[in-house]
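Please supply some protein, with fold tokens.
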Amino acid sequence: MAQRIHALRRHATAFAVVGLAWLCFQSVALACPTCAEGVANDPNHANMVRGYFWSIIFMMSMPFLIFTGLCSYFYYEIRRARARQARGGPLVVDSVSLPSV
């Protein structure tokens, strides 16, 4: 039990040190000043900013699209199985035919 408490304290200390370092150096890692000024004042970089915008939108939509696709697939499969069972056919699970009840 003492080993667990010691390990927990060690992990909590490491987490606190990393969190404190992150808070202290957060303002340093904002962006390269040359890049920030170039993008802000140069109209030629507008397409690059627009590309970043659309790539972020695309990446943020992927979990929702994947979840919706999987839910739709499972819904379709359940409806097929219920329709097959209503017709009096056997219930098929993992390529094994089970008798209808």
